[in-house]
Amino acid sequence: MAKNLVSVRLTGGGTWTVPAGVKQVWIYSEFNGVSSIAGSDYNSYIRSQSGRVYSFGDDTYGQLGNGVTPFADTSTPYAVVAGRSFVQVAGGVSSHVLGLEADGSVYAWGYNANGQLGDNTVVLKSTPVLVVGNHSFIQVAGGGSHSLALKADGSVYAWGYNFYGRLGDNTTVSKSSPVLVSGSHAFIQVAGAGSHSLALKANGSVYAWGL
């Protein structure tokens, strides 16, 4: 019978033994509905259509967000804990992650030595913590130990490591909670890099700050 099979569909969880003669196997899971993907320095993140985020890779600083201790690297996707449903996920260059919820709140987890999680501490977190300030954002971006977030009015907030002025607040002092990028600009997109930040305006002009 098996020799006549061309393909087989596998569903659910567990371990399967594929019959001899099968030429193609489809494995259906929640990842069949991947909505977006993101990466950081040594990690990958998958956001499903339901908004759940799954992570795999390095977990040195708890950046997998699965709350498992002791921290352990994994090549198998694990669900980020706390039951959050994100509309966007962004990985930072230095082992931290940002998740944006539909209501505009931002959660962060992972490395936090420079306050890049935005929770008014410098203690790493292996589960998502709320960025302080009661802000409502529409986009987030991770940089090199710093974070950026865009509001609907075009203003940009930043937090974390501020060496070289990558937070754009006219200082070089690190911040563990969001501060407004100076200049009264109206942007439509932000991006973070290792030691600098970028922002795009509706007319196509780009602004940059940092190293």
Name its key features.
mainly beta, 4-stranded antiparallel beta sheet, 211 residues
Describe it for me?
The chain is mainly beta and 211 residues long. It has strands at 7-10, 24-27, 34-39, 43-48, 53-57, 74-79, 86-91, 96-101, 106-110, 125-130, 139-142, 146-150, 156-160, 175-180, 189-192, 196-200, 206-210. It has a 4-stranded antiparallel beta sheet, with no helix packed on it. Strands 7-8-9-10 form a 4-stranded antiparallel beta sheet, with no helix packed on it. Strands 11-12-13-14 form a 4-stranded antiparallel beta sheet, with no helix packed on it. β12 (146-150) and β13 form a beta hairpin. The mean pLDDT is 88.
How would you concisely characterize the structure shown here?
With 211 residues, the protein is mainly β. 0% of the residues lie in helices and 42% in strands.
Number of strands: 17
Lateral strand order in the biggest sheet: 3-4-5-6
Number of helices: 0
Spell the H/E element sequence: EEEEEEEEEEEEEEEEE
List low-confidence stretches: none
% residues in beta strands? 35-45%
Quick one: biggest sheet?
A: 4 strands, antiparallel
Overall pLDDT: 88
Helix content: under 10%
The dominant shape is: globular
Radius of gyration: 20 Å
What structural class is derived from the secondary structure elements? mainly beta
N-to-C span: 66 Å
